[in-house]
Amino acid sequence: MKTSWHTWLFWCWSISAVFGAADPGAPRASSVLLRVPVRKGPARAPGAHGPHARKPRATGGVNFVDMVDNLRGKSGQGYYVEMAVGTPPQKLNILVDTGSSNFAVGAAAHPFLRRYYHRSLSVSYKDLGRGVYVPYTQGRWEGELGTDVVSVPHGPNVTLRANIAAITQSDRFFINGSNWEGILGLAYAEIARPDENLEPFFDSLVRQTSVPNLFSLQLCGAGFTQNYSLGSATVGGSMIIGGIDPSLYVGEVWYTPIRREWYYEVIIVRIEVNGQDLNMDCKEYNYDKSIVDSGTTNLRLPRKVFQAAVKAIEAASSTEQFPSGFWLGEQLVCWQAGTTPWHIFPVISLYLMSENHNQSFRISILPQQYLRPVEDVASAQEDCYKFAVSQSSTGTVMGAVIMEGFYVVFDREHKRIGFAVSTCHVHDEFRTASVEGPFHGVELEDCGYNVPQTDESTLMTIAYVMAGICALFMLPLCLMVCQWRFARCLHPPGHGDFADDLNLLK
Prior knowledge:
Elements: E1 13-14, H1 15-19, E2 34-37, E3 49-50, E4 71-74, E5 78-85, E6 90-97, E7 103-106, E8 126-135, E9 140-151, E10 159-171, E11 182-185, H2 201-208, E12 215-219, E13 236-241, E14 249-257, E15 268-273, E16 276-277, H3 282-285, E17 290-292, E18 299-302, H4 303-316, H5 324-327, E19 331-336, E20 348-353, E21 359-365, H6 367-370, E22 371-373, E23 382-387, E24 389-392, E25 396-398, H7 400-403, E26 406-411, E27 416-422, E28 434-440, H8 456-490, H9 495-505
Parallel strand pairs: 6-11, 7-10, 17-25, 18-24
Antiparallel strand pairs: 1-2, 2-19, 3-14, 4-5, 4-13, 5-6, 5-9, 7-11, 8-9, 9-10, 12-13, 12-26, 14-27, 15-16, 15-20, 18-25, 19-23, 20-21, 21-28, 22-23, 26-27
């Protein structure tokens, strides 16, 4: 997949047992710090704030109560919702992904799938006679396009006909133990495969039903106390299709515009670590885009921004020393259960441009979010974590570990994304995730990244250079042909030689 999702089976060793006691200057003298190598593998953004009066509510027979707690999963393996596909309905768990636009399900046996979509058993399936191939940052799949009737049992009480890709082959896409069998791409048609003419699921839902053109996500991290009455040992969350549920957040919803309707692209105007500005050109934060993506695990940052952020985080948490591999996501750190020194790690703040382009608001992210718990690595007596901030070559990605602090509203109708503090985010007695504003600025829209445009004079220069190169290659060939023709005029071949010459020229 696109992000760092793994089956964790690793060895670990105690620093205090091998090298002696921990640094006496550390605030927790009794805890044990473990460092564990991590195997790399597939994984996988009036004016400032949105007044409550503008909140869409239940319409068209949509009952939000039925949708609360309809997600399962966790940030390291993805969050999924149950969907029913075909006639009679085949129930499958489908990964919720705001960073892609194809609805695709496993349609062939796979070692990591407990069940898959049987097209031959659905009387409503229609084959479109087209293939599709979708690569991700890590992992890929290919399959065959068709349409079928689809519903969401714990969603709006509607059934629609949607495009569906039947996955027949894949590489590093499905994840062992993740419990999902397909992917629901919720982004826009521009990034759909094989082309933008393939209507994404949510577009079909809005067009065919009375469901409003928005959805909202509450992703609850691994530290959230699970509602075990639902019969699942994994954590989860809620996907509210068609509206906003006030019971899932506290405070107000603050909105940032969707800059471009392909991914859910936003504009970051400032980044702080423990209140200290990274002091970078704001365009660097959005190079070459900034998106909100539930299908990515980490907060991914462009190289220069990542290096500056890690330097600031490392300096803030300098009371303990961590190996360089930890900051690169290659090693884990573990402490005795219940002794994780959260207070030494700083808060990371992202400032997003508000609907008033001369204002911004701030979302503050706790270490409980960007240090991702990794289960079953050492023992039940230890808490182990992976650094969930990583380097990106494709722009800033606000992944699941960021969204776990917030209730995120994808208001497609008004081309904006809202953030409010989630009721299920993990925090301690000293700090909490927050959404605050407004903060004033000037021309914040200029922080967005624009692909450099080559002017006409540059294109003409390139054309002349290419023409000159072609001429240099063609001139010797023309001279050779002229010389050969001249030689034939001086020495006409005999009748017996003609056939040989003709054969040589064929």
